[in-house]
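Hi R.,

Here's the input for the FE2/S2 (inorganic) cluster complex you asked about:
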Amino acid sequence: MYRIIEASWLAPEVKRFRLEAPEIARKQRAGQFVIIRVHEQGERIPLTIAASDERTITLIVQGLGKTTRLLNQLEAGDAVRDVVGPLGKPSDIHYYGTVAVIGGGVGTAIAYPTARAFKFAGNRVVAILGARTRDLLILEAEMREFCDEVHVTTDDGSYGVKGLVTDSLQAVIASDNRPGLVLAIGPIPMMRAVAETTRPHGIKTVVSLNPIMVDGTGMCGGCRVQVAGRSQFACVDGPEFDAHAVDFKILAARNAMYREAEQRSLAEFNAQRLDPHHCRLTEAHPGSPPP
Ligand code: NAD
Ligand code: FES
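And here is the predicted structure with FE2/S2 (inorganic) cluster in place:
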């Protein structure tokens, strides 16, 4: 069992957890992830490690489906069953002069450790953070601590510049500090749009992919993605890939394959939550005696 040391909400449905996992914390490098199971019968979900210290790792979880919502019910003092990692290749950190790091929604949590690593490597780091609305923007203050510039966009104009991250990216590309590398992490349509924005400028662009994962070791094939016409496994060959070589159409179709089952499972979970006799801890650890 892995104990939760701290849990706090960053935005509606987005929660930050600090978990005691010293062996993973000591080995972890920017860009790597863990696969967790909340309880013995739970599904495995990949989560990027947002930060670590000597003993703990930080995970930021967006409650989208049943498992992430179940996880987001846990509090400091609770525990999760399994945490496996660190998995995946660390981010490829080099000096490019200026690096533009784009975080779309909760993708900012994944971009954060890699943006810091680029800064430590001597780069000028320009962050572009996008959210649908002000309340959904996360980690702005943390990014401002080390980035040379931070641009914020909101779709509804409630904060920062009204528009999408690609609007700010166009302005950054046209500026005197044209980036040598763009890193984009967020929803698939955003990563695809960023790739199409940088392609005509010939700017190297990297995306972090989060397809469905099961084992995280390259054995099950669940996380297969097409890159430069070849099958790659995001869990062992990625999660970061050349954005100009990724087939986003196949990626989007594969991620949607289980949508119906996911929605059914979420509906059952929500119905249980409305049950007046429902217990949060028994649900997170089925089979345990009720407290
Ligand atoms: P979101 O839908 O709120 O989008 C965040 C921002 O991305 C928007 O504000 C906008 O600036 C930009 N964006 C979105 N679509 C765009 C487009 N077509 N063109 C240009 N910019 C666009 O993001 P969210 O709700 O935080 O995440 C939604 C999905 O993203 C989830 O399904 C989640 O699983 C996935 N996700 C993937 C990763 C990853 O590792 N690649 C990380 C986080 C989230
Ligand atoms: Fe099974 Fe990647 S998760 S091959």
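One thing worth noting: The mean pLDDT is 90.

Cheers,
M.
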